[in-house]
Amino acid sequence: MTRLRPVLIVFVLLALMSFVYQLGGVSIDPLAESTLALGFVLLFAFSLGQMALALKAPSITGFLVAGILAGPFVLGFVTDKSAEPLQLVNGLALSLIAFTAGGELKISRFMPRMKTLLWTAALQFGYTFFAVFSALFPLFYFTDLLGGSLIVAFCGAVLISALSTANSPATAIAVITETRSSGPVSDLVIGVTVLKDVIVVVVFGMVIGLIEAVIGQGKGMGFDLALDMFYEITISLLIGWAAGALMTGYLKLTDQNIGLFVVTTALIVVEVSVALHASVLLISMMAGFIVENYSETGEKLI
Asked: Which conformational region is residue 217 in: left (phi greater than 0), alpha (psi within -120 to 50 degrees), or beta?
């Protein structure tokens, strides 16, 4: 009966959501619709996560399936409209995940493997980009998917190829943490995943500039675009350093209410990143890196 409980919860949730949306009772109140969507997703994802564990798979597999099913392209219980007020929650989750990812980059642990890490990240990035581009460029050029134009086909293939090189630190860290994996392979996976995230941020900006230059619109690869990229990366790293120093100072003073302090700091990071047009991902990763490597009490926080 215990194993069937998540299945029953899933069916009950789906039935209740279908009933509510057929009545249209929350459509007139955006806040109520967003609250309902958030509550449903939390319960739905947790239940599917338990089902994934029962099938000997990581719970994050169930979380991902829940997001796909609940989203606007399948069941439609979570729409763009209902998700918009939840952007702060999304930013908070991203900040906490990135903070954990940065905290996994222990210098003393990665320095002996730095050459392997860099080569692995470079080869993964290059191979993925080349493979996707080689498949998509002929497809776009010889079909009418993007109009059959050589320039448009090239730009579309480059853009998707750049996006395809990204990894998910959240997924990697969740699986490694849940399976309690440790050792050189786990360290390599985390290091490569985080390093490629930084690379993708830079490369994606360059690709956007290249596309704008090729199609003759926008700033292209000019000085303004380079300055914008330099500003975003620099200000993000500086804010991340400041946040990491703040956390380190807090840990030296007390070990009380650490969870509350971390969540509060993450919320501040999200708001500051929006106000200063910085990257919440880079800020949080930098903060986690500082705490882990330059604080004797970093283990309390990571």
From this structure: beta
- Residue 146, both tokens: 């993007």
Q: Taking residues 78-84, what's their average pLDDT?
A: 76
CA dihedral 182, 185, 187, 188 (to 10 degrees): -170
Does the pTM surpass 0.90? The reply is: no
Report in angstroms the alpha-carbon separations of 97 from 104, 188, 239, 298.
11, 18, 17, 16
The beta strand positions in the chain, using DSSP E, are none
Answer yes or no: is pLDDT of 222 > 70.
no
The first and second tokens of residue 186, run together, are: 């786990």
Coil, helix or strand at residue 163? helix
Query: CA distances (Å), 14 to each of 1, 23, 51, 84, in order?
Result: 20, 14, 15, 22
Helices (H) and strands (E) in the chain, counts: 14, 0
Element (H, E) at 55: none
